[in-house]
Every structure is written in C-alpha cells, then in structure tokens.
Amino acid sequence: MAGVSAALVKELRERTGLGMLECKKALVANDGDIDKAIEDLRKNSGLKAAKKADRTAAEGKLRIITQDGVAFVVEVNSETDFAAGDANFAAFADQVVAKLAETRETDVAKLMEGELEEARMGLVQKIGENITVRRPAVIESDVVGAYLHSNGKVGCVVALKGGNEELAKDIAMHVTASNPRVVRPEDMPADVVEAEKDIIKAQPDMEGKPEAIVEKMMGGRINKFLKENSLVEQPFVKNPDQTVGQLAKAADAEIVTFIRLEVGEGIEVAEVDFAAEVAAQLKG
C-alpha cells in the first residue's frame, strides 16, 4: 500500500465509479499509476461482471412508453432495491425501453446485443450487482393506455377497441390495483377452473353432502371466483357502483387485452445466510 495516497484512491473511484478496496488493489498492483490501473480494471470488467451473473436479481423497476396506439413495456432487475434507485440504473432502464421502442425486439438476447449489453456490463461493474432485463413486450391496438405505480414496481397496459387513452389509463390503474387474471369469465383457462373446483370440493362444509348439493354449491362458488377474477366483472376502483365492463361500454369501448407486470414476480429468490456470505467475502 506504500505510495498509494487516499487522494489517488479517491480520484480513481471518481473516474471509475468502483469501490474503494478495488481501486486500492488496482493502484497497488500498478505502483500507483492511475492510467495503468484503469486499463487493468477495464480489461477485467467483463470477468467481474460475469462473476455476478449467478446472483438473483429480483428487485428493479418497470419502464413503459406509449406512443400512437403502441405500448412498450420492460422490466429491468437488480439485486437490491437500493441499486434500483440509483441514477445510473434509471438511465440504463431508460436506454432499454428506448431501444425496445425503436426496434420492437422482444427477444431479450437480441434486444441486448451491442451497445446495450456493453452498458449493462459497465453498470454491473459500477454498482457491484447483477443487472438483468426480462419480459419486454409490445402491445398494439386502436387505443392503448398505461399506468405505472409511483414506486415503479407495478404497472399495466390496457388495449381497447374504441374509447380513448384516458379511459385505457383508468382501466390500467384499476388492473394495477385489483390484479384480475383475465378480461372475461370465459377467458379463464380450463385447468385453472378445474383446480379451483378441487379446492372447493375439499373444503370442510362440503364433507358428507350429497353430490347434487355439492355440484350446486360448487357452481355458485365457481361463478363467484370467475366474477372476482375477471376484469369486466370487477367493480371499478374509482366507482364501485359500476363494473369495469360497464365503464367501457358507456364509452363505446371494448377491452381487448391487458398486461400487468410486477417487479420480481416469478423469480425464485434463494434464502441467503448473510452472516456466512460476509464471512466468506472477508476470508476471500
């Protein structure tokens, strides 16, 4: 460490955005030559980014753009919520959705080719966390409207036939809050209905009842399940006396589809013993 001043370490940190310890090591390895240290760090950046690729990135932000009847949605993930709040992370997420809007490429590997992947690797190196991109989507219709919750973690796009963007945005807000599974009851997948029937049959109040009574009770409960989970049947959040279907019909609109995303959904997060992880890093 001899000859490596705190000021030199500070300068290298400012020029690279890397951690203090990593900057010290690079300077020591290069006898305090900051330019050579930067060169070494750049050579190693790909390897260091790859080492973080097996870490689970289940936090992050959504990005949504709407323009001329088309909506572009993408999820950008980080390991921690803290990193997702970083300005560099936000700038990268904006880059991703901008390229999605430019190319309409929904294959993640193809979307990330070239400069975007280089930007991702640089961000991994800079903030010290794995960064991933997933679920890019393009939704096109007569009318599209989007709603993104203020935390940037839950959002929705609604496609309409007829109506206007403000109506679509209101319905998107409803979907974000109420999380319906399908647009209409008849859209519910048959396997989901059958699974719900099995759950209903297994409930204690069904035990010992005649089959005809069970079927009648089950029919009522299935109808209730479908009503609660179908967008057009749900009471509109801004006016519970009106269903979303009635809202759309009053505006001469038809709900075509919707997509609702929540950051991290579907990502399996392994439980981590943080004390052991810190101890292992210190040992290393």
Question: Topology, pairings included?
Answer:
Elements: H1 6-16, H2 20-29, H3 34-51, E1 59-67, E2 70-78, H4 81-84, H5 87-103, H6 108-111, H7 115-127, E3 132-140, E4 143-148, E5 154-161, H8 165-178, H9 190-201, H10 211-229, E6 235-236, E7 239-243, H11 244-250, E8 254-262, H12 274-283
Antiparallel strand pairs: 1-2, 2-3, 4-5, 5-8, 6-7
Description:
- The protein is of the alpha+beta class and 284 residues long.
- The model has no long low-confidence stretch (mean pLDDT 88).
- Among the domains are: 6-51, Orthogonal Bundle (Helicase, Ruva Protein, domain 3), CATH 1.10.8.10; 55-140, Elongation factor Ts, dimerisation domain (Tetrahydropterin Synthase, Chain A, 2-Layer Sandwich).
- The strands form three sheets. It has a three-stranded antiparallel β-sheet with strand order 1-2-3.
- It is 49% helix and 20% strand.
- The chain has helices at residues 6-16, 20-29, 34-51, 81-84, 87-103, 108-111, 115-127, 165-178, 190-201, 211-229, 244-250, 274-283, and strands spanning 59-67, 70-78, 132-140, 143-148, 154-161, 235-236, 239-243, 254-262.
- It is elongated, with a radius of gyration of 25 Å.
